[in-house]
TrEMBL record:
This is Pirin family protein. It comes from Dactylosporangium sucinum. GO terms for molecular function: metal ion binding. Belongs to the pirin family. Fe cation binds at residues 76, 78, 120, 122.
Length: 322
């Protein structure tokens, strides 16, 4: 998915000085995604840049698209990241410059690695369910992987388990003895948790990771904090357990990973390390340079890049001291 803001801001965001256990509720913001969809963006946030290598989180829907076009995201470029598409309802058709053409459905995972450069589009199929609801996330690639070639992986079957009224599906990484086959380049976890009404459980988590939770349906109590859709609960690091309860049915997505220490320049759909890298990628997209961003099948007009800001883009850490 693209960041379609016409004037994307440089992400100069975090204010915290550490990753000790906490329970910090971060409010998302509404962002238009093209002409037809509005998403709730939780990362980057005004007080948090990354959770592990997770650097971007949009929650879209639930939306009845019976009378409309649904998702319409034209071809656009990415560098330096992986995209993760996770659906709760509906279908999305992914096409990319590698020639991939894949519909993703609930319980399945699309994960695309941009590396040095890739372009893709995401659209609702002509024949599709009436409801669209899901998450789009980005993972910042570490320096050793971000200059590599692009790749795409579709996983139709992911590991799941149910205990204490909680159904766990591991999309990325490892949790509760379940390991996803998704290829990532940093120590990470991403898991869908479906809590039955009255469920209460203590989940073992990696104490070397920082974690956060976004609730996608209902309301859940996480470490004693009630969380509803529209917010992200940042939990810090140095935890080995996570306490979850739900009086009514609820669903949430747990994300976490080793704190990502590399300083990032995030602008539009690019994750880089310097102003020059952003300029180079934008120039290649607008040229266009097919050796870096090959055409996306489907005949859609590509999305033009917005103008660069008048000030120099600077690398930023995951938080700002003070």
């Amino acid at each position: 998915m693209s960041n379609l803001e016409s004037q994307p801001a440089e992400a100069d965001l975090p204010v915290e000085t550490g990753t000790a256990p906490c329970a910090e509720l971060l409010e998302g913001r509404d962002v238009p995604l093209g002409r037809y969809t509005v998403v709730r963006r939780s990362l980057p946030n005004k007080s948090r840049r990354t959770v592990g290598a997770w650097c971007f989180l949009d929650h879209f829907g639930p939306e009845d698209i019976t009378g409309g076009p649904g998702m319409r995201v034209p071809p656009h470029p990415h560098i330096g990241l992986q995209t993760v598409t996770w659906l709760l309802n509906g279908e999305v058709r992914h096409r990319d410059s590698l020639g991939s053409d894949q519909i993703v459905r609930p319980g399945q995972l699309n994960i695309m690695t941009a590396g040095r450069g890739i372009a893709h589009s995401e659209n609702s199929p002509t024949e599709r369910p009436p409801l669209l609801h899901g998450l789009q996330l980005w993972i910042a690639l570490p320096d050793g992987a971000r200059h590599g070639g692009p790749a795409f992986q579709h996983l139709a079957d992911l590991p799941t388990a149910t205990a204490n009224g909680v159904r766990i599906t591991v999309a990325v990484g490892e949790l509760a003895g379940l390991t996803s086959p998704a290829v990532v380049h940093s120590p990470l976890v991403g898991a869908d948790l479906h809590l039955a009404a009255g469920a209460a459980t203590t989940l073992a988590v990696n104490p070397g990771f920082e974690h956060a939770v976004v609730v996608t349906e209902g309301t859940a109590s996480i470490e004693g904090v009630d969380v509803s859709p529209g917010s992200l609960l940042y939990l810090g690091a140095d935890r080995d357990t996570l306490h979850l309860t739900a009086t009514a049915e609820a669903r949430l997505f747990l994300l976490g990973g080793e704190p990502f220490e590399e300083e990032l320049v995030m602008w539009w759909n690019f994750v880089a390390r310097s102003h020059e890298e952003i300029v180079e990628a934008r120039t290649a997209w607008m040229a266009p340079d097919a050796s870096r961003f090959a055409p996306v099948p489907g005949g859609e007009d590509p999305l033009p890049a917005p103008g660069l800001p008048t000030t120099r883009l600077l690398p930023r850490p995951r938080y700002r001291a003070g």
